[in-house]
Amino acid sequence: MKRSQLQKNILSYVLLLLGLFIVAIPLWYMVSTAFKPQTMIFELPPQIWPNPSTLNNFIKALTTDNFGLYFWNSTKVAVTATLLTVAVSSMLAFAFARLNFRFKEQLFYLLLLGMMVPPVMLIIPQFVISHWLKLYNNLWGLILVYVTMNISMQTFLLRGVFEDIPKDLEEAAMIDGGSPWTFFTRIVLPLSGPGLAVVVINSFLYSWEEYAWANVNIGDSASRTLPIAIAFFQSAHLTQWGQVFAASLIALVPVVIIFIVFQRYFIQGISTTGIKG
Amino acid sequence: MHTRRSRNQVIPAIIFLLPGFALFFVFFLGPLLYSLRISFYHWNFAHVDRSVFVGFQNYIDQLKDPIFLRAVINTAVYTVITVFVKMVLGFAVAILLNQKLRGRTFLRVAYYLPVITSWVIVSLLFTYMFSGQGGLVNYFLTNVLHATNKNIMWLADPVLALVPVVLVDIWKGVGWTVIIFLAGLQTIPTELIEAAAVDGANNWQRLIKIVLPMMRGTLVFLLVVLILGGLNAYVPFQLITHGDPMDQTHSILTLMYRATFERMDFGSGAAISYLLTLFVFLLSFLQLKLLRKPAGD
């Protein structure tokens, strides 16, 4: 019995490490290429670590081609869109989870349409509307569309979280003369940490790496965000892979930070929000 | 009591719903309907008043266009392969990670890393790895496996160009299915599995008779979300193949992009996106019907 358990564990480790190896190869290749001098970009066989290695790609990426500006644009867009998504979708979810009003379920299903329609499908009419509202070439054009494309899914997740908050707490808040707003801000939001963390992760990642809409709505190079700037750089300098991946790694830093900070909530969040077996 | 209460809550409800629904109408529902209108016109973007109503002509033109049909086939093949592989691999890894192993938190995070790496970056990364000259994949095939003795020009071939697109999706997507499967597995009571083991069920029987049926919700959820994602594939096609060679490697949405923003034919672009939506709705409906049906047993 014990022996077969040991064999099973060893087999599990072998399989898991094999999978890990496959997952790791492209990531390692990206990192090592970022440290390669341009002359070694297509040199084979690949070295575990480039020799000689260089920081030039990072220096060039940071100092040329307005990279700092693109990073700042992406930061503004992602942070604002995330804050707005959290605010707007938690308000929506609160109304659907905790308030009584007519046509509640019909409105909810209407909102869920947003989960069925792919964002890319809407870029044509959004492009037209963005011109009407003078949001073309404007970062607000990105922010408002990102929030809209996120609220359906995030409201759906948060409604489930808010519904689990015990009725007693609501009654206690109401007896003390509280309004729905105080119940929402004093009790519901503080008790929904993991659920809100999932919303933060989802909307930040979405806004930080969105490509299709940004590529259409931003024509002016000064308003570019990182994903379109990196893709644009690659198509303009076809073989400068070292710089492409140096820029990519810098662009990944905020994502990794968010992921590490919220990682614990993230796994927890998936099992508490919406998806139940 | 109840009626008084619901009357009281109309005003708070409006306040809580207003910001979200304002955005939803201006940037989602409005555009969705407006795009339907565009799809019936030879749309003139610069002078909207000069647009010509053409009925279903844009739709008919697309359905007759071999490039559109090719894009439909590409998208379908891509979806079937990636969804199947991601489900199977994701389930296998989740089963392995669901054991009490040392370092499983590390493994879970490691498997998730490709998921948080952006589509643009991983698409460029796979383009580089699949370079015809000096690419890592060709090196591996010729010098390590000796499977071929000359470099394969992946991106110059209308069929082979889809290989990196499919692989990047699987590589990036497996970690997500693992996490969702793990969440599903954790809702299965361990007593149930132990009881079956006491009754003499082997690993395989326990998997088929207990674990899979109890994971029905997770399976349906994953299937719907992954198929939807596959049909809407855009960035990897756009950045890896650009539809080349000869427009043979488009997905439905990259073709929509090309019609609209490269050829300024907004009507055809809108028609393509509506054909896709129609198909997605039909499929979601069918999926829910088929998969929900045996839930009564």
Q: How much helical structure, as a percent, in the residues of chain B?
A: over 70%
Oligomeric state of this protein:
heterodimer
CATH class of chain B: Mainly Alpha
Strand order of the largest sheet of chain B: 1-2
**Strand fraction of chain B:** under 5%
Taken from the alpha-carbon principal axes, the silhouette of chain B is globular
CATH architecture of chain A: Orthogonal Bundle
Rough outline of chain A: globular
| Annotated CATH topology of chain B | MetI-like fold
Most extensive chain-chain interface = A-B, 88 and 96 residues
Output the CATH homologous superfamily of chain B: MetI-like
| DSSP summary: helix tally of chain B | 14
Order of helices and strands of chain A: HHHHHHHHHHHH
Distance between the termini of chain B: 41 Å
Provide the gyration radius of chain B in Å. Answer: 24 Å
Q: What string, H for helix and E for strand, traces the elements of chain B in order?
A: HHEEHHHHHHHHHHHH
The CATH homologous superfamily name of chain A equals: MetI-like
Query: Helix share of residues of chain A?
Result: over 70%
CATH domain class of chain A: Mainly Alpha
Q: List low-confidence stretches of chain A.
A: 272-277
Features:
heterodimer; A: 277 residues; mainly alpha; MetI-like fold; 12 helices; 75% helix; disordered C terminus; B: 297 residues; two-stranded antiparallel sheet; 14 helices; disordered N terminus
What does this structure look like?
- The complex is a heterodimer of chains A (277) and B (297).
- Chain A is an all-alpha fold.
- Chain A has helices spanning 2-34, 56-63, 67-98, 104-116, 123-132, 139-163, 167-175, 180-191, 193-209, 212-217, 226-236, 241-272.
- Chain A has one domain: MetI-like (MetI-like fold), CATH 1.10.3720.
- Helices cover 75% and strands 0% of the residues of chain A.
- The longest helix of chain A has 33 residues, at 2-34.
- The model of chain A is unreliable at 272-277 (pLDDT under 50).
- A two-stranded antiparallel ribbon of chain B has the order 1-2.
- Chain B is globular, with a radius of gyration of 24 Å.
- Chain B starts with a helix and ends in a 5-residue tail after the last helix.
- Mean pLDDT of chain B is 86; it is low at 1-6.
- Chains A and B meet through helix 1, helix 3, helix 4, helix 5 and helix 6 of A and helix 1, helix 2, helix 4, helix 5 and helix 6 of B.
